[in-house]
């Protein structure tokens, strides 16, 4: 299978994705540059992470399904702000990031079966800790506009928790805002916070809250196309059944890391049989 990178591909047809793959023998994948450990640009400038590795294996399975001699992968960077439009207008065929599946989003795009389940939380300076969700009231909280975490924070208002929002474009900027004092806390999905704190530049020590803001369910995002969605879900189910998921975990997280029981259960439920 050939791979390549692209930054501005021509818009793909919004319909009949499977048929077009058979004609062009290429698949355009969207990825995030700043969403460790799910989807990011590594030190060599290449797409990397859990969702990226899953998408590579999904592409290999689709290549087998369609009996294609080759399937070229074209990688296109997307952001939180651009990812849904990139899917809708055909700039990318499949988004391999850290996108939570919601009914509001599903009104305009399709999603694969579940690829990840986790909670969202927040970090603050260890020297000025924000420990509990209730402590966010009146605090300056960094968050990415339009994210499910922003919606979860806004939903705290009836409980008397009303943060002062500090909107940031990326996770890295959110963590930086805490370290330089622009925000008292930064909120997003827990494992992304871990990736940013451990993999980011050195700075003031941060502390993560033990409390949760929401439960986030990630899926791969695509245009409304029933045949392509079926091909993607069939590929994911095979990956969940054949042991490839364990290889992804070892590659991305290390040899001794295993899925949580919640994630194992979610993926097992999506390892559907062919017949």
TrEMBL record:
InterPro entries: Bact_solute-bind_prot3, Solute-binding_3/MltF_N. Residues 26-256 form the Solute-binding protein family 3/N-terminal domain. Keywords: Signal, Transport. Pfam families: SBP_bac_3. It comes from the Bacteria. The keyword Transmembrane does not apply. GO terms for cellular component: extracellular region; outer membrane-bounded periplasmic space. Coiled coil: none annotated. One of its GO terms (biological process) is amino acid transport. Belongs to the bacterial solute-binding protein 3 family. PANTHER family: AMINO ACID ABC TRANSPORTER PERMEASE, GLUTAMATE_ASPARTATE IMPORT SOLUTE-BINDING PROTEIN. This is Solute-binding protein family 3/N-terminal domain-containing protein. It comes from Ramlibacter tataouinensis.
């Amino acid at each position: 299978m050939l791979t390549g990178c692209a930054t501005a591909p021509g818009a793909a047809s919004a319909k009949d994705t499977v048929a077009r793959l058979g004609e062009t023998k290429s698949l355009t994948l969207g990825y995030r540059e700043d969403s460790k450990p799910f989807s990011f640009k590594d030190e060599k400038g290449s797409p990397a992470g859990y969702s990226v590795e899953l998408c590579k294996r999904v592409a290999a399975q689709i290549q087998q399904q369609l009996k294609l001699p080759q399937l070229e992968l074209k990688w296109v960077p997307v952001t939180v702000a651009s990812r849904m439009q990139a899917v809708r207008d055909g700039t990318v065929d499949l988004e391999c990031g850290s996108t939570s599946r919601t009914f509001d989003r599903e009104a305009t795009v399709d999603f694969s079966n579940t690829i990840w389940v986790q909670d969202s939380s927040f970090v603050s300076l260890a020297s000025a800790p924000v420990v509990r969700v209730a402590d966010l009231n009146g605090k300056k909280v960094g968050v990415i506009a339009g994210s499910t975490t922003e919606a979860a924070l806004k939903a705290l208002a009836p409980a008397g928790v009303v943060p002062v929002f500090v909107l940031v474009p990326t996770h890295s900027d959110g963590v930086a805002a805490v370290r330089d004092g622009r925000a008292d806390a930064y909120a997003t999905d827990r494992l992304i916070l871990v990736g940013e704190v451990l993999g980011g530049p050195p700075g003031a020590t941060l502390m993560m809250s033990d409390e949760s803001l929401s439960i986030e369910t990630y899926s791969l995002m695509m245009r409304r196309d029933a045949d392509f969605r079926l091909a993607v879900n069939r590929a994911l189910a095979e990956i969940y059944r054949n042991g490839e998921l364990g290889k992804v975990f070892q590659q991305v997280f290390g040899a001794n890391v295993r899925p949580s029981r919640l994630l194992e259960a979610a993926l097992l439920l999506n390892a559907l049989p062919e017949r």
